[in-house]
Write a structure and sequence with these properties.
The protein is built from 2 helices and 5 strands; from the N terminus they run H-E-E-E-H-E-E. The chain is α+β, with helices and mostly antiparallel strands. It has a single domain (5-105), classed as HIT-like (HIT family, subunit A). The chain has a 5-stranded antiparallel beta sheet with strand order 1-2-3-5-4, with helices on one face. The chain binds guanosine-5'-monophosphate and zinc ion (ZN). Guanosine-5'-monophosphate binds at residues 5, 14, 16, 28-32, 40, 87, 93-96.
């Protein structure tokens, strides 16, 4: 996708602070963090949102979810708790139309979210 910001980050055309990368997934720090740790976990294959999840293979989905728990463990986010969010569509505040999971940690979170 030529005009997709996260595809440009995946290709390296736009720089990012990378945390983890493999064949299927890239994890990097959010440029405008909403918590002391704020990561974005994205599939390398472009899909617009979780509403297109059937376009990913089971292996890719397992890699994405597995990378979230692995990295949460490595960074010690699981000790006090952390949050995983995927904003979907305009009403939920999705601003980049490439599936991404926000992983937020190292502060207190309230429920329900805003
Ligand atoms: P959304 O609003 O779609 O749920 O999340 C998009 C996220 O991408 C936002 O939290 C925003 O701060 C982040 N973001 C936007 N542009 C860039 C960028 O160029 N680099 C990085 N690392 N994050 C970005
Ligand atoms: Zn994309």
């Amino acid at each position: 996708m030529d005009d997709c910001l996260f595809c440009k980050i995946i290709s390296g055309d736009i720089k990012s602070d990378k945390i983890f990368e493999n064949e299927f997934v890239l994890v990097f720090r959010d440029i405008n963090p909403k918590a002391p740790v704020h990561l974005l976990v994205v599939p390398k294959k472009h899909i617009a949102s979780i509403m297109e999840i059937e376009k990913l293979g089971h292996g890719e989905i397992a890699e994405i979810m597995g990378s979230i728990s692995r990295i949460a463990k490595e960074l010690g986010l699981d000790k006090d708790g952390f949050r995983v969010v995927t904003n979907t569509g305009q009403g939920a505040g999705q601003s980049v139309a490439h599936l991404h999971f926000h992983v937020l940690g190292k502060r207190t979170f309230h429920w329900p979210p805003g």
